[in-house]
């Protein structure tokens, strides 16, 4: 049952450690972890592995084969370009909507209701991927827009709970554990789906049918565990009672006021820009790694699939490990150290020997070690600079900062290949994103950013 604002505030302002005996707080955390376990099936099984190749095949069927064109709204586009265009459209849709939904959830105090609705949208669209076959590329593209909007919206709202789940000194540990559990949940389902996909012939399935089963299974996984998690969460995310929440307008006017307030908090803005830079590097490495392994190193699809699975399992331990490092050495220092590791990994990738699968697996282990921790600690650090009462709204901006620049890394890779005809040059060019992020992070006064937001500064930062 939803709790009232007074009870919610007392939970949020309590100061439990991650091992707190407070049953209500522990229950909320367990719900948050369960949601992460279920939801991470979407970015692993759907977007990282199965949907892109499958939807491209559907588009090629509609176009009449490879290197053929689709005719859509008076435009002729290559069938191979349809999925990247769908990803771009999804990013633009999310950028225009996410902060508005976050603000509405904060004002209403009904974050759980919004989260349930967003998850329902994402789950329904993901389950319906099973119906995409033949040449139904437009139906598949529409489902992808709906599923990605549902997932991103739900992610914003779930992240908004983080400031209420622990005091400032414990948020790194809670965020790291959440990421770790999410990676593990996604990895378990992905392992099952890869096994089914690999053995599709003995199971009496076509390759396309096996892909559709995998896509739909992600929706079912998300539904079962996500629903179990949401039931344990409270109605809203605000750390303030309704009578103390800041007055706000609606729609884009409120978004403009929030952006203006963020701009006045110079150090908070610097951190967001730093995150935008190095996270774009992270996302581009993840999306380009398989292409690099296949085209530059000559490794097969089985190596790519097993390497992706390896990264997921290693990221589980990596997120927990980096959470412990942050508790000992500070969050900013740990994130900075992870960025240096990312740079070292890119240099190593540039120097890898063609055909050496073992080197690619070692690279995957290195990526897994820093992947989850970089994301988890960035999330908990951003939570420190959110003014009370605007949790979901600010995490909407945080999500947009990922999607709004999602094209820059891929464009950098494309231009590097275009002008140098070298995948090695393309992979090493991504060092610039981590270097810029490291520089901006070093120039950010995080303690001032946290104080300016009206929040308590953690003992170790």
Automatic annotation (TrEMBL):
It comes from the Bacteria. The keyword Secreted does not apply. Keywords: Membrane, Transmembrane, Transmembrane helix, Transport. Pfam families: ATG22. It is found in: Endomembrane system. The keyword Repressor does not apply. It is a multi-pass membrane protein. This is MFS transporter. The lineage of its organism: Bacteria, Bacillati, Actinomycetota, Actinomycetes, Catenulisporales.
């Amino acid at each position: 049952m939803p709790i009232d604002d007074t009870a919610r505030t007392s939970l949020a302002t309590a100061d439990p450690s991650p091992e707190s005996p407070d049953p209500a707080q522990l229950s909320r955390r367990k719900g948050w972890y369960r949601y992460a376990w279920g939801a991470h099936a979407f970015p692993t099984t759907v977007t990282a592995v199965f949907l892109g190749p499958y939807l491209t095949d559907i588009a090629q069927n509609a176009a009449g084969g490879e290197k053929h064109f689709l005719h859509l709204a008076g435009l002729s586009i290559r069938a191979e370009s349809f999925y990247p265009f769908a990803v771009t459209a999804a990013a633009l849709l999310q950028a225009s909507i996410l902060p508005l939904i976050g603000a509405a959830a904060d004002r209403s105090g009904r974050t759980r209701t919004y989260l349930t609705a967003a998850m329902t949208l994402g789950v329904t669209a993901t389950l319906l991927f099973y119906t995409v076959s033949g040449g139904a590329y437009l139906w598949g593209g529409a489902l992808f827009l709906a599923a990605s909007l549902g997932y991103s919206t739900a992610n914003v709202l779930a992240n908004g709970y983080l400031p209420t789940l622990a005091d400032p000194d414990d948020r790194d540990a809670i965020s790291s554990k959440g990421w770790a559990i999410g990676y593990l949940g996604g990895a378990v389902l992905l392992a099952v789906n890869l096994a089914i996909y690999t053995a599709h012939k003995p199971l009496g399935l076509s390759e396309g049918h096996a892909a559709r089963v995998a896509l739909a299974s992600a929706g079912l996984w998300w539904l079962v565990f996500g629903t179990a998690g949401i039931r344990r969460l409270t109605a809203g995310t605000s750390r303030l009672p309704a009578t103390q929440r800041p007055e706000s307008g609606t729609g884009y006017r409120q978004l403009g006021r929030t952006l203006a307030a963020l701009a006045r908090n110079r150090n908070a803005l610097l951190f967001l820009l730093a995150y935008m830079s190095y996270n774009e590097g992270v996302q581009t490495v993840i999306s380009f790694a398989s292409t690099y392994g296949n085209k530059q190193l000559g490794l097969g699809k089985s190596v790519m699939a097993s390497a992706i699975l390896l990264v997921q399992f290693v990221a589980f331990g990596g997120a927990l490990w980096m959470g412990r490092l942050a508790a000992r050495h500070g969050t900013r220092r740990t994130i900075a150290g992870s960025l240096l590791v990312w740079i070292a990994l890119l240099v190593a990738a540039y120097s890898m020997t063609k055909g050496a699968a073992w080197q690619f697996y070692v690279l995957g282990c290195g990526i897994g070690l820093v992947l989850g921790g970089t994301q988890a600690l960035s999330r908990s650090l951003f939570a420190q600079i959110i003014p009370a009462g605007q949790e979901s709204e600010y995490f909407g901006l945080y999500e947009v900062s990922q999607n709004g620049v999602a094209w820059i890394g891929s464009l950098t890779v494309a231009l590097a290949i275009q002008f140098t005809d070298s995948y090695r040059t393309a992979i090493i060019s991504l060092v610039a994103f981590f270097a810029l992020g490291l520089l901006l992070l070093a120039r950010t006064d995080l303690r001032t950013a946290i104080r300016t937001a009206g929040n308590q500064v953690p003992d170790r930062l």
